[in-house]
Design brief:
- There is one protein chain.
- By secondary structure, the chain is an alpha/beta fold.
- It has one domain (about 1-225): 3-Layer(aba) Sandwich (Rossmann fold).
- It is built from eight helices and seven strands.
- The protein has helices at about 1-25, 45-55, 70-75, 100-105, 150-155, 155-160, 180-190, 205-230; strands at about 30-35, 60-65, 85, 115-120, 135-145, 165, 195.
- A seven-stranded parallel beta sheet has the order 3-2-4-1-5-6-7, with helices on both faces.
- α1 packs parallel to α4.
- The protein starts with a helix and ends with a helix.
- The relative contact order is 0.16.
- The structure holds magnesium ion and zinc ion.
- Magnesium ion (MG) binds next to α2.
């Protein structure tokens, strides 16, 4: 009973901090996305390609979450965009990012120079789903090599998501995988979850993801203009 109370308090404190982060994003006109996946699903590769495709149109920034190492941050820093690495080793080796870690990372970024901020969460399909970071949209990256049953096994992360990116579709010919079964499993958990199939490696389907991002950014800007127009 006590344990449950502690967890509830922890999540409530996190939500308060997440709201604060969201206000910071909105004040600075930033669209923020929280990318979640298992380890090795290809989040960093998706981000690299995204920066290559979208880096001229929008000012992008990345917060990288890992338990240890700054390997992924180094991969993105070569694009000369703001990248902040969070290693949770210093937070007791947490297996997820929380709103407080993001708040601290934001102090290291010039937010007036960012249009879209990507948060690459720690590779884990369980608790990242429970922690609101203040993002506007949650994106799951799922690699084809993970099989069809991930949505059924990890329902929370799928239930809360705004987009499912099915990555590594270039491997389809080599795998014994039923893509339509994967889609059905995801729909069972979250019937409104849109999905995009792509390969960050071959770029197949990648323009769908870029279009989705552009649409989200434009929708957010429109909302802002509408609310600005009110007396
Ligand atoms: Mg990574
Ligand atoms: Zn965790």
């Amino acid at each position: 009973m006590k344990k449950i109370t502690v967890l509830t308090d922890l999540l409530e404190a996190n939500d308060v901090m997440a709201q604060e982060n969201r206000r910071i994003f909105d004040r600075n006109r930033i669209l923020t996305l929280n990318l979640m996946s298992s380890p090795g699903a290809g989040k960093t590769t998706v981000l690299e390609k995204t920066v290559e495709k979208l880096g001229k149109k929008y000012r992008l920034g990345v917060i990288e979450g890992d338990v240890a190492t700054s390997n992924d941050a180094k991969r993105l820093a070569k694009y000369k965009i703001p990248v902040v690495q969070i290693t949770t080793e210093t937070f007791g080796g947490a297996c997820h990012l929380d709103a407080n870690m993001i708040k601290k990372a934001l102090e290291k970024i010039d937010l007036t120079k960012v249009d879209i901020l990507f948060i690459e969460n720690i590779g884990n399909l369980i608790c990242p789903a429970e922690f609101d970071l203040g993002e506007h949209k949650k994106v799951i990256v799922l690699s084809l090599t993970e099989g069809e049953d991930k949505p059924s096994k990890y329902p929370v992360v799928f239930r809360n998501a705004d987009l499912l990116l099915v990555n590594k579709v270039d491997l389809l010919p080599f795998l014994d995988l039923d893509l339509s079964l994967l889609s059905r499993n995801a729909k069972k958990i979250n019937p409104r979850l849109p999905s995009i199939k792509l390969s960050a490696k071959t770029e197949e389907g990648f323009s769908d993801w870029i279009n989705w991002l552009t649409k989200q950014y434009n929708a957010k800007s429109k909302k802002r203009i509408a609310s600005c127009g009110r007396p």
